[in-house]
Specification:
homodimer, alpha/beta, six-stranded mixed sheet, 15 strands, globular
Chain lengths: 305, 305
């Protein structure tokens, strides 16, 4: 039965928007755009990273821990109902409170019939100026997760995970046909002129490369808009999120893409047969040298450790 | 002393040309273009895959085994002398005869002062229509190799290896600052119109992604020209090699590139400081989840193995 299903295309949507300081507004916006995506025929909808709030990791402030909630919890319950109502599956990025003093950057998947399917906790946690995530998020301890929904195997990885070919490969070895990357990435306005193009291109390139290396679909979902570093701050002290959410096919070609500033829905058809066509043309999975890859578990192969 | 040297830029050259049916002509052409590269200031020169011959793997023909030679051997000796004369290091791709009935797709590096530095044997061996390499080449058994020459740590991987992020990552963990990919890749004219752009873009994307993921330089060196499948054959029965050799910086940006048909030298400056600048901006090596990567040694993570 699974193999029959595998030939049916499924529409997937990346939902891009700008996040306000008001979580209630962001929740309403996410619901509105999920409805739009469903109306356009999407069966799987992917929301951006931590879309309920501004990207609070620009500073280290313990009061932000109050933004966290359990997963599953109140927000996933809202989207479970929405999922059942619309008949769409939803990939949902949330700030997870696991225990007092233990928080994760988490994403879960809800399915119209089966409700909450499970969660993934971001494994690769960044820490750079204005992206101080190691302060807020303990590294994920669930490994890579793949969720079957709408007859499609969906891996969910989160933002910084997108720079690590290892994570995409593991998802593929677990059978993922689509890898979704809820993301919050942008330019620091000071470096946009000098490094902006190279940074954006590197981001697009690495994610398209996961599609190529693995012969799978990739969905990159980013937020847009400018967010100041401090609540009362203004441009250029903050992050200019670069939008440009896109969906790539298993040959790495971009099937559809939003602009830098556009808010809305990016749609593409997940055609499972495109995966076998690509992998039959270039059968990389056949030729991996698993006998030499064990050193990938090392941090570095020092000459003098 | 190494750390002082690390800040000195070194020019590297990718040499692209069309290979004739006559090995003596190809040898002369490789020598001529290596001289040109040296005259333009290159200190490291990388030649395309199996440049001494036409790409004979389009068919399975035991008489082609006679094209193989020991490595080190007669051709590496020629380039050792050239290297010493010109003061340039050379990355040299050869069809290696290891024993009767045991052959490899091999690359070696020669250094102007130290001569033959060692060899790498292609680990990932393709086998597709017109690229029947599994017939000719036993999979490499030397692992990933990094050679220090001209004060730069150079990893040599070969063609099909370029599709495997695992190989580039291992090279990086071994300290590689540059990864060179001698290559012979092209279009089957029958599919050039339908798949040509996507195939080329996938090739460029995956190699630029290795630069991005690893914060290192990447040199992709391809041949150009049309080669018929049979000696007496003609277009479109054969491979149209797509040239477009390029050098990418550690941010993935292409620094210099040849056209599809151009024969000659693509030069770029390897500036080791660009590696630390890139890695300080996006410190991926800091954040790898080595605790979850051991499954990369599996062929597939079957639900029911």
């Amino acid at each position: 039965m699974t193999s029959l299903k595998m030939s049916e295309p499924v529409q997937i949507a990346a939902v891009q928007f700008s996040c306000s300081p008001d979580p209630a507004k962001n929740l309403a916006r996410a619901i509105e755009l999920t409805r739009n995506a469903a109306a356009k025929g999407a069966k799987i909808v992917c929301l951006p990273e931590l879309f309920l709030t501004r990207y609070f990791c620009q500073t280290e402030d313990p009061s932000n821990y109050e933004l966290a909630e359990p997963v599953p919890g109140p927000t996933s319950a809202v989207f479970e109902s929405l999922s059942a109502e619309l008949g769409v599956s939803i990939v949902l990025s949330l700030f997870e409170k696991r225990a007092e003093g233990l928080y994760h950057n988490t994403a879960c998947v809800v399915d119209p019939k089966r409700g909450y399917l499970g969660k993934y906790r971001k494994m690769h946690v960044p820490d750079d100026p204005l992206f101080m995530e190691k302060y807020y998020f303990a590294p994920g301890d669930l490994g890579v997760k793949v969720f079957e929904t709408q007859g499609i195997k969906v891996a969910v990885l989160i933002c910084w995970d997108q720079w690590f070919p290892e994570a995409a490969r593991i998802a593929t070895l677990m059978g993922a046909q689509v890898i979704c990357y809820p993301t919050a990435i942008g330019w620091q306005p000071y470096e946009q002129e000098s490094h902006g193009t190279a940074q954006y291109e590197a981001w697009e390139t690495i994610q398209r490369s996961h599609a190529v290396a693995n012969g799978c679909f990739v969905v990159a979902v980013n937020r847009t808009g400018f967010e100041p570093t401090s609540p009362a701050g203004s441009y250029p002290d903050g992050i200019q999120f670069w939008g440009q959410s896109f969906i790539a096919g298993p040959d790495g070609a971009i099937l559809n893409q939003a602009s830098e500033t556009e808010e809305g829905v990016v749609l593409a058809s997940i055609r499972p047969k495109a995966i076998s066509e690509q992998r039959h043309g270039w059968p990389f999975l056949r030729d991996r040298r698993t006998d030499v890859y064990s050193v990938l578990t090392q941090t570095f192969l020092d000459e003098n450790p």
